[in-house]
Amino acid sequence: MAKVKVTQVKGKSGATKRQIATLEALGIKKIHHSVEVELTSVTKGMIEKVRHLVTVEEI
Prior knowledge:
The structure is a single chain. By secondary structure, this protein is of the alpha+beta class. It contains two helices and three strands; from the N terminus they run E-H-E-H-E. It has a single domain (3-58), classed as CATH 3.30.1390.20. The termini are close together. The mean pLDDT is 95.
């Protein structure tokens, strides 16, 4: 499986509760925080839901 680096680049203030919960489930705690995750169908869907708040880089 491929790994990707997900970094939060925008604040959570305008996000819905569901989007904030998705960020927490990905392991992102605050702005400019990065995590490395396996790229599975589940994580792809989570990233798509918060696409406007994060950047994604392949490792």
